[in-house]
Amino acid sequence: MPGQKKQTIKERSITFFNLSFLPLIPNKYLEYSMSVSCKDLKSKKYFEPTKGFVESLLNIEFIDSCSNRAHCPFHEDRRDSFRIYVDGKDEIRFHCFGACNRDWDVYDLVMLKEKCSFPDAQVRFAKFLGIDILAR
């Protein structure tokens, strides 16, 4: 119709899905189904969000999506010696092949950068992902 604003796809999808039935589901089931353990958050399933989190946390930028390399933020680095990878246990890890010559997981990096405890690091990462953590 003339003069009527066209709805975008996002607006149409919101109009289409009526979530008014959600309060009928007991909260304990919603919390359980949407919660994951902190170990689960290190799995390769969360590779891209973890990469984005570490980029913002350490103020670095991975050079390209294929090689997953960056300049190490912990020492003067002229080469891209900082890597993100998935190990044999399907966990996301970080390694510096330069002066650090160290290996970390995402929680190690949060604790190192923010100078916080392990449980605080877990909560900070989970909040970034918008996920309630079930077990520590």
Topology at a glance:
Layout: H1 9-16, H2 27-34, E1 35-36, H3 47-58, E2 69-70, E3 82-86, E4 92-96, E5 103-104, H4 106-114, H5 118-129, E6 132-133
Parallel strand pairs: 1-6
Antiparallel strand pairs: 2-3, 3-4, 4-5
Helix pairs in contact: 3-4, 4-5
* β-strand amount: 5-15%
CATH topology: DNA Primase, Chain A
Q: What's the mean pLDDT score?
A: 78
Helix content: 25-40%
> Major sheet: order of its strands?
2-3-4-5
Overall geometric form: globular
C-alpha Rg (nearest Å) = 20 Å
Query: Structural class from helices and strands?
Result: alpha+beta
CATH class: Alpha Beta
Terminal residue distance = 55 Å
Helix/strand order, N-terminal first: HHEHEEEEHHE
Q: Given the structure, what is the number of helices?
A: 5
CATH architecture annotation? Alpha-Beta Complex
How is the biggest beta sheet arranged? 4 strands, antiparallel
> Any idea how many domains?
1
Query: Quick one: how many beta strands?
Result: 6
- State the low-pLDDT regions, or none: 7-33
What does this structure look like?
The chain has 136 residues and is α+β, with helices and mostly antiparallel strands. The protein has one domain (9-133): DNA Primase, Chain A (Alpha-Beta Complex), CATH 3.90.580. Helices cover 36% and strands 13% of the residues. The protein is built from 5 helices and 6 strands; from the N terminus they run ααβαββββααβ. Strands 2-3-4-5 form a 4-stranded antiparallel beta sheet. Strands 1-6 form a two-stranded parallel sheet. Helix 3 (47-58) packs parallel to helix 4 and helix 4 (106-114) crosses helix 5. The longest helix is centred in the middle third of the chain and has 12 residues, at 47-58. Mean pLDDT is 78; it is low at 7-33.
